[in-house]
Amino acid sequence: MSIGSWTPLVSVEDLAAALGEPALRLLDARAVLGDPSAGRAAHAASHLPGAVHADLDRDLSDHAARGQGRHPLPDAAAFAHRVGEWGIGPAHQVVVYDAGDGSMAAARAWWLLKLLGHQRVAVLDGGLAAWRTAGLPETAEAASPVPLPAWPSSGFDRSRIADAADVAARLGQAPGWLLDARGAERYRGEVEPIDPVAGHVPGALNRPFALNLREGRFRPAEELRGELQPLLHGRVPQDTVLMCGSGVTACHLLLAMEHAGLPGAKVYAGSWSGWISDPSRPVATGAA
């Protein structure tokens, strides 16, 4: 089949039919929190034919940045250069996948490419798990894309990124402006397995990203819209900020909103780990 403009999701069936198309580029964004080498090792062992690895810590984050959370945004120029090294140019259709549901870290790679201005980018619905269930081909052969110049961009689209100052300026607004994609127990502050402080930003509503899935794939757009739109309390998506623990699974919630026909929300890149880097910022616990 010929490649269309796939976004924000593509099925394993459609991708399988397009393998080998010259305009197709595949990114394997598998990652495991707490084990920075696990994604690279998994990719080296087996991956979709032609896929290169997009590393959460090396490519999709810049750990030299301080006070910006556990996964600070990469430098835009460095990321644009990396995209060129992957052989991706404006005419290519990019498909990103991870081990399964897109949360680690396919949605993050999808968002960063969108921030650069690349529109033809989709996440593989169900990821590698769905690909394997369908019995589709994999390989251990390393991909060797022909490098291209750095992505032609003046930087990330800052209108789609929120920072701590943006969030602090809106504290006290009526609910619906800030959605937290972490699990309910972490949001309420009952457990915190990763960050040194438990709780949430005052005024945030909780929407665990896992609620957007059914058996590892995104639920139908109409179902999601019926649940997500009321959380905005009358706001347009562009007036809403999404967050999580470190700015990774917030991208999964952004992907779900775009799939549901609610595009344009901002992501608080530093998220909870960035918020608590300043002990003067307020923290709430319990249910909203």
Key descriptive features of the protein:
288 residues, alpha/beta, Oxidized Rhodanese, domain 1, 2 domains, five-stranded parallel β-sheet, 10 helices, 28% helix
What is the 3D form? Answer: globular
| Element order: H for helix, E for strand | EHEHEHEHEHEHEHEEEHEHEH
Radius of gyration: 18 Å
Number of distinct beta strands: 12
Structure description:
The structure is a single chain. This protein is an alpha/beta fold and 288 residues long. The chain has 2 domains: 9-156, Oxidized Rhodanese, domain 1 (3-Layer(aba) Sandwich), CATH 3.40.250; 159-275, Rhodanese-like domain (Oxidized Rhodanese, domain 1), CATH 3.40.250. The chain is built from 10 helices and 12 strands. It has helices at residues 12-18, 38-45, 76-85, 106-116, 127-133, 164-169, 184-188, 221-231, 249-259, 271-275; strands at residues 9-10, 24-28, 52-53, 93-97, 121-124, 161-162, 178-180, 205-206, 213-214, 217-218, 241-243, 266-268. The strands form 3 sheets. Strands 1-5-4-2-3 form a 5-stranded parallel sheet. A 5-stranded parallel sheet has the order 6-12-11-7-8. The chain has a two-stranded antiparallel ribbon with strand order 9-10. α4 packs across α9. The termini are far apart.
